[in-house]
Amino acid sequence: xxxxxxxxxxxxxxxxxxxxxxxxxxxxxxxxxxxxxxxxxxxxxxxxxxxxxxxxxxxxxxxxxxxxxxxxxxxxxxxxxxxxxxxxxxxxxxxxxxxxxxxxxxxxxxxxxxxxxxxxxxxxxxxxxxxxxxxxxxxxxxxxxxxxxxxxxxxxxxxxxxxxxxxxxxxxxxxxxxxxxxxxxxxxxxxxxxxxxxxxxxxxxxxxxxxxxxxxxxxxxxxxxxxxxxxxxxxxxxxxxxxxxxxxxxxxxxxxxxxxxxxxxxxxxxxxxxxxxxxxxxxxxxxxxxxxxxxxxxxxxxxxxxxxxxxxxxxxxxxxxxxxxxxxxxxxxxxxxxxxxxxxxxxxxxxxxxxxxxxxxxxxxxxxxxxxxxxxxxxxxxxxxxxxxxxxxxxxxxxxxxxxxxxxxxxxxxxxxxxxxxxxxxxxxxxxxxxxxxxxxxxxxxxxxxxxxxxxxxxxxxxxxxxxxxxxxxxxxxxxxxxxxxxxxxxxxxxxxx
Length: 498
Hints:
Among the domains are: 6-140, Rossmann fold, CATH 3.40.50; 397-497, 2-Layer Sandwich (GMP Synthetase, Chain A, domain 3). The protein is built from 16 helices and 25 strands. Strand 20 (373-383) and strand 21 (386-392) form a beta hairpin. Helix 1 packs across helix 8 (196-209), helix 9 crosses helix 10 and helix 10 (240-252) packs across helix 12. The protein is globular and about 70 Å long.
């Protein structure tokens, strides 16, 4: 029997609330009606968009899923843009995907309308699109492409990851099963909507389950804590930086308010962390505050989620659990052979959730697979059945003195120093060692730490990692939009100061 589509399931939820946002509460019936009108407006009298790409940047409320569903129901391929990106990056995605139409909410008109005009593509306002007269819509086969999400990886220009409707359904249903989603759930959405974390794990899973999704305009720690206190939320999914900021807000609150904040977390049934390595120190502090052991999982744009700690059962700090339902996972060495138990290797993934192709990059697509296994480029080790990520082959695995050292593991050790607030470890070229380990750290407020003190403190703790030396200690570093120090930044600073 064929599984009902996301839209077919929505029809069964009728007047149940789907999206809750500052602009109002919208039902599944309203979402279906709005997306149907959007599809009709995109078709403009045609029978089927025939996989035409539609780039869109919509408000973080009912309009966003209505536009996305509208593209799908018209037979198009959705290309979500990000308000966090500069205009040049938006233009790149529109041009590279070959989008013939750009849809934008009114607040993004000044940015996107000139880009659309320069590229000679149709520009539509989302409000006008959602007011289109109804029309007959095409039947969409599950193998047709549905979504192109741009990911830069670690090198080269951003690549468009093409996922079919069947791929997305597989990504959604495995999480519905593993994390026990139901129509009783109510999730808070604070994540960007140009990554699978926000698009699939939060929004699509909620709408598949018939749950409610509270969409905030963006992340604000005080507003998140307000929602946790005042609303009957059951789920929270975020990145490590969000939890760090929530911890900081809790620590800054008066004692009585801290008690209310902590008590509010007790009604949540599941809290998830992903998209970056979760420091064990953050996991432990959040558990102290909230009573929750954060569920860590592992995924990529190309594969959706692949590994997860259990919803019911032991969640091991520092690991990402085991393969999700329907996912085949293996570790191989540099020659492509399976590694022995307890040894590290590249993660390779196979299953129905794995993407179709990189858009218009057949050579890179072919290079990314071996016998239907997708080569993630991430290195892990399996310990007692639980997978532990060691980092990206290209940026996190440092080859020094004949050893392979995980930058993420060294960062975890250094982060335990009481004076260190943030740390970034990279490998830098060295004629003797091949690569030396360079650590750049941001000190906490009022902290004082010399390089000699750090080396002395780390000598014994880092002995197992065969670290030849810590080369730099930096008190101030530029950070990205999420407050993180990035490895390219550290490498650039090293080169400039060498």
